[in-house]
């Protein structure tokens, strides 16, 4: 059941720390761990968010303005997939679960996906982006997968040694990070079928390699790192994703007036968009 970087499998919905995105948190003990949102969106054919004269580009800019103003959004990076300008990757850093949940239920999320094909990748992992990540970095996203019935201990041991060797090498050309993607959960808690589907999901570890110049070739790494790459390759089950240089959006900006964007969008067009992408239940 390979789901590493595929589209969200209905009827499952995003979960974090074992709870649905829509569940109200307890005020007594709200989880405080930073959360990284990883979103992958395939735009409809002919859609281009890079050209400001298109409605899609104006909506994309509006969504960015809205999302970066959500309290406790601490970093917002996005890029296209290399040689696939209609596929976008967004990395959004949230202070905690509460902030992530606000994003999931916001109009900003719906605007961001307004011109995407049905079902975008929308996953979370308990991770803080490394301090050295900057605008212009090229990201290689590598999914590693362990079957649901198997232990993750072997992979975790190999990954820990690999990252230790990377830190020791202290190579300025790249920064390596990663974490376990939170599994999706059932939309309907009372459905045995949905729970069974959720239980079948493999454990997926997403490695994020931030390259400062160009993608690294394994042949340029030290022998210990090359060995680590070889050992890790047994867990790779899907294609890697390579992005164009990251764009960094400044966060904590004042909330924009969505009713009057710089180039107004008609109520009719907005209504059609919200009908295509209704609020998630």
Automatic annotation (TrEMBL):
Name of the featured protein: ABM domain-containing protein
Record-linked SUPFAM superfamilies: Dimeric alpha+beta barrel
Domain of life: Eukaryota
InterPro entries linked: Dimeric_a/b-barrel
